[in-house]
């Protein structure tokens, strides 16, 4: 009797467990059925803003207005960048701040493509439509065996390596999507929502490019700056508010407007040029007009313009540190380097932090046509600093260096004497700096003229050379290496 009672009790417990399981599954099914699904595309977009950094990273702020079911919903947010960093995504309601609670967040980027479609059908039946007379069927059912290095099919117990026709698939697999999408599981308390989604994406880069037009007589220049944008993020940003951050923003690896006051040409164009401001330890440039940044597009936008900027050409004849510890033969007919210098300050009609970029120099010839005269790259240059551009080597200015004496005083102490001549074949007077990079410990014992000790390892002799004339520097130095 007790055994029967135990058996009945066990059967009741088992039946109760089964009923509880069925109930749980039903509840789960009802809950799943209660989760509404909504999606949003660019049709609901009301604003888009892009802040681009120097390192190929950009912050996107995408605002959309849409009607949503209340309660627990799944929201598919389409048309986002393919190169998004999912861990940086943020979502908030601009209309009712506390009306949205995020329960779960996913990023789906397995996009539809011919290769992806075939991969999903490996081991499954497909239809082949023949386009060739070499195959004796028109349309046939086949099994896709592999896509590794090319498609392999089984047709009527024969193996086809590739196929001269069209592959027809019965449907698109559920786990492939047409556009990159963010998927949220949300608890929503408001029917009408204005949502702002922010995220960082790779693939959007910008550089600064400058056009320097040098006056024929060299004392002034016109400077125009351009921003070159490149978008490889996988998304198009239409009518976007664009901001640029200049500076080295650290990325973990796994102000007051001073805009060109003083120049009439700049004041007239101020409303079409960016607004610059200090931002954290960087500089932020806000473009004055909205613009569309298309995928796979390179776009140029005006950054700055200034006229009548005072400048100067500098000529430099530079030595080498190894000249002082060994005998050396004469060095003749060496062309002298030429540099262009100007101050980036308000007095000189500038005074704006200049983002790193390439400055290309042009100058008019005798016919008034602009000719390319050299280019150089600048680093991020704050206001009130000097810009120095290497143009190249001067054709009509040559230098000659003769070591007139050399002595080894001890194991690591040397004396060397030099006669340096620079000849100017130009039609105007120039100033040449003879720059001597010394070893770590040095003393000039004799000299034909004064010099400037620029730093612990550099002596500079400056001389003014008349047209078709020459200048000469003679000195003796003792160095310890």
Description of the structure:
Helices cover 9% and strands 55% of the residues. The longest helix is centred in the first third of the chain and has 33 residues, at 2-34. It is mainly β and 481 residues long. The protein has 3 helices and 31 strands. The termini are far apart.
Structural key phrases:
481 residues, Immunoglobulin-like, eight-stranded mixed beta sheet, 55% strand
Percent range for β-strand residues? over 45%
In whole angstroms, the N-to-C terminal distance is 108 Å
- Stretches where pLDDT is under 50 for at least 5 consecutive residues are 16-33, 255-271
What is the radius of gyration computed over CA atoms, rounded to a whole number of angstroms?
A: 36 Å
Quickly count the helices.
3
How many extended strands? 31
The largest beta-sheet arranges its strands as 28-31-26-25-22-21-27-30-29
Just give the CATH class of the largest domain.
Answer: Mainly Beta
Q: Structural class of the secondary structure composition? A: mainly beta
Q: Percent range for helical residues?
A: under 10%
Task: Please write out the topology.
Elements: H1 2-34, E1 36-40, E2 45-53, E3 57-67, E4 71-78, E5 90-93, E6 100-108, H2 114-120, E7 125-130, E8 139-146, E9 152-155, E10 158-161, E11 165-168, E12 181-188, E13 192-202, E14 204-214, E15 220-231, E16 237-246, H3 264-268, E17 275-279, E18 282-286, E19 291-293, E20 297-310, E21 312-318, E22 331-344, E23 357-364, E24 370-378, E25 385-408, E26 413-424, E27 430-437, E28 441-447, E29 452-455, E30 458-465, E31 469-480
Parallel strand pairs: 1-4, 2-16, 14-23, 21-27
Antiparallel strand pairs: 2-3, 3-13, 4-12, 5-13, 6-12, 7-8, 7-11, 8-9, 9-10, 14-15, 15-20, 16-18, 16-19, 17-18, 21-22, 22-25, 23-24, 25-26, 26-31, 27-30, 28-31, 29-30
């Amino acid at each position: 009797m007790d055994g029967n009672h135990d058996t009945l009790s066990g059967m009741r417990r088992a039946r109760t467990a089964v009923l509880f399981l069925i109930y749980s599954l039903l509840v789960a099914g009802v809950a799943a059925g209660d989760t509404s699904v909504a999606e949003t595309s660019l049709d609901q977009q009301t604003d888009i803003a892009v802040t681009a950094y120097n390192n190929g990273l950009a912050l996107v702020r995408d605002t959309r207005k849409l009607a949503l079911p209340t309660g627990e919903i799944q929201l598919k947010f389409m048309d986002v960048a393919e190169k998004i960093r999912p861990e940086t995504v943020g979502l908030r309601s601009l209309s009712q701040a506390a009306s949205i609670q995020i329960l779960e967040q996913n990023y789906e980027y397995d996009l539809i493509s011919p290769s992806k479609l075939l991969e999903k059908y490996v081991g499954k039946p497909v239809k082949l439509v023949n386009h060739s007379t070499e195959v004796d069927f028109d349309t046939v059912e086949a099994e896709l065996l592999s896509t590794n290095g090319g498609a392999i099919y089984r047709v009527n117990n024969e193996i086809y390596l590739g196929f001269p026709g069209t592959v027809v698939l019965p449907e698109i697999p559920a786990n492939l999507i047409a556009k990159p999408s963010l998927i949220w599981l949300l608890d929503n308390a408001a029917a009408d929502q204005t949502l702002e989604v922010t995220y960082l994406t790779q693939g959007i880069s910008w550089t600064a490019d400058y056009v320097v037009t040098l006056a024929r007589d060299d004392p002034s220049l016109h400077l125009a700056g351009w921003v070159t944008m490149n978008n490889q993020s996988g998304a198009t940003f239409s009518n976007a508010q664009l901001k640029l951050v200049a500076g080295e923003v650290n990325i973990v690896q796994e102000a007051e407007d001073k805009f060109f006051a003083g120049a009439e040409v700049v004041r007239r164009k101020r409303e079409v040029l960016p607004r610059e401001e200090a931002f954290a330890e960087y500089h932020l440039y806000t473009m004055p007009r909205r613009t569309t940044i298309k995928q796979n597009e390179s776009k140029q936008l005006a950054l700055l313009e200034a006229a009548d900027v005072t400048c100067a050409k500098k000529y430099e004849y530079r030595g080498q540190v190894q000249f002082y510890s060994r005998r050396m033969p004469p060095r003749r007919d060496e062309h002298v380097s030429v540099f262009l210098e100007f101050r980036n300050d308000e007095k000189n009609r500038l005074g704006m932090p200049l983002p790193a970029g390439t400055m290309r120099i042009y100058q008019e010839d005798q016919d008034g046509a602009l000719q390319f005269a050299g280019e150089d790259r600048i680093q991020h240059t704050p206001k009130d600093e000097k810009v120095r551009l290497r143009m190249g080597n001067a054709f009509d200015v040559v230098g000659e260096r003769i070591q007139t004496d050399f002595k080894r005083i001890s194991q690591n102490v040397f004396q060397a004497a030099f006669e340096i001549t620079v000849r100017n074949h130009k039609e105007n007077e120039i100033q040449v700096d003879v720059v001597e990079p010394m070893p770590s410990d040095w003393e000039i014992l004799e000299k034909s003229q004064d010099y400037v000790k620029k730093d612990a390892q550099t002596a500079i002799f400056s001389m003014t050379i008349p047209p078709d004339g020459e200048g000469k520097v003679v000195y003796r130095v003792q160095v310890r290496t």
